[in-house]
Design goal:
GO terms for molecular function: methyltransferase activity. By secondary structure, this protein is of the alpha/beta class. It has helices spanning 20-29, 48-57, 76-84, 112-131, 182-192, 209-218, 240-253, 269-282, 320-337, 350-353, and strands at residues 9-14, 34-38, 41-46, 63-72, 97-105, 136-137, 144-151, 154-160, 200-202, 262-266, 288-292, 306-309, 342-347, 362-368, 371-379. α5 packs across α6.
Length: 387
């Protein structure tokens, strides 16, 4: 198995829908060539040691999948037989633990769990035949993870080098109400082209995810600094020196001299306390000025800068009549108090967005879970547009 840590193969990096453009930017910035990009990820050629680097550096990704096999399978029996040919005894420790995930679209399968069981059975049977011992398996993703991608008659088998999703960045022990996924929060900030030096203001901050991600971006602090366990650590052939060298590079890359004004406010004292705890866990509490109060009382330093709102959409929280007033007040506040800024409102409710009363200069498409959302951009000119 040692050689696959150094042998480039097909690698798929997945992400949530509509985050692919931001993932592509990150992957290219790390020096990798993208062979193919699609709505929920990118494809490249890389070794598992390369995957270690990708896992530690990517902010917008979900999983980093390294292909170990591909074959035709029309039904579960053919899937099982194809899987038996793979040298699992050289990848998964016989006294170890593994789990199986899958993405299956095959007419003979009514539930993906059945396909997962077939994968598990093949791995266990092969290792028992070669080593005389059965490894343990279960649903937890904290050790070796194998991923099946089975579309029609084509089965692809991957080592999921990530395990638990990369889309969560490890600092949010207290999520608060209706939180924004960390990978999504980062992507929305990347969409604004914020320079990481000018002010970033986040009224209605909730559990603080946007402000924390802004601070991490400003200081070039990577998610890998928050995490000490990945699936790649539990495959045969793992060399921990590669991981610790990469982690050392992350520490060296972090730029603690960048301390832009980052302000996060919320009317809920409890929300601000949760945001402070999360920021402390992320190591950026000292970079963020937290304020309790109505969003209209939020301190806005002299611009230029970025101000971003993620108000309730009326889907899970709040009621429409109140929210119509809130959205109108957001528009008035940006227009009157945020001159020289670029304003952003992230919402999943187009009817409420109309109440902002300003003309959006750009609309970025995102999903928050399954909800179709927009990040609306507003140019908040100081004086007339011509000036």
């Amino acid at each position: 198995m040692k050689e696959v840590f150094n042998t480039p193969e097909k690698v798929i990096i997945t992400c949530n829908k509509r985050l692919s453009p931001y993932l592509q930017e990150e992957v290219v910035a790390l020096g990798f060539d993208i062979k193919r990009a699609f709505n929920t990820g990118v494809e490249l050629h890389a070794s598992i040691n390369d995957c270690i680097r990708l896992n530690l550096n990517l902010r917008t990704a979900s999983q980093v999948l390294y292909q170990i096999g591909s074959f035709r399978a029309d039904n579960p029996q053919e899937l099982y037989e194809g899987l038996l040919k793979i040298e699992w005894e050289n990848m998964i420790p016989f006294d170890g633990y593994f789990s199986v995930t899958s993405n299956v679209h095959n007419d003979t399968i009514t539930t993906p769990l059945f396909a997962n069981v077939k994968v598990k059975d093949a791995i266990v049977d092969r290792i028992k035949e070669k080593k005389g011992v059965r490894p343990n398996s279960g649903p937890d993703l904290f050790k070796s993870v194998v991923h099946l991608h089975w579309m029609e008659d084509r089965a692809e088998i991957f080592l999921d080098t990530s395990g638990e999703t990369l889309a969560k960045h490890g600092y949010r022990k207290h999520p608060g109400k209706a939180p924004m996924l960390e990978a999504l929060a980062t992507s929305t900030i990347l969409a604004t082209k914020w320079d990481g030096k000018s002010p970033f203001v986040n009224p209605m901050c909730g559990s603080g995810t946007l402000a924390i991600e802004a601070a991490l971006l400003a200081q070039n602090r990577m998610p890998g600094l928050q995490r000490m366990n990945y699936s790649f650590m539990h495959f045969i052939g793992y060399d921990e020196s590669v991981f610790f060298n990469e982690r050392k590079l992350l520490k060296e890359k972090a730029d603690k001299s960048q301390t832009p004004p980052i302000i996060a406010s919320d009317i809920s004292e409890q929300a601000v306390e949760i945001a402070k705890i999360n920021a402390k866990t992320a190591g950026v509490e000292h970079l963020i000025t937290f304020q309790v109060g109505d969003f209209a009382d939020t301190t806005v330093p002299d611009g230029p800068g970025v101000i971003m709102f993620n108000p309730e959409y009326g889907e899970r929280l709040g009621t429409h009549t109140k929210l119509e007033i809130t959205y109108k007040r957001i528009g008035d506040f940006m227009k009157q108090e945020c001159k020289g800024y670029r304003g952003y409102v992230f919402t999943g409710n187009p009817d409420l967005a109309k109440k902002i009363g300003l003309k959006a200069s750009r609309r970025f498409e995102f999903f928050n879970g399954k909800l179709d959302c927009r990040l609306l951009q507003y140019e908040l000119y100081d004086g007339s547009k011509e000036n």
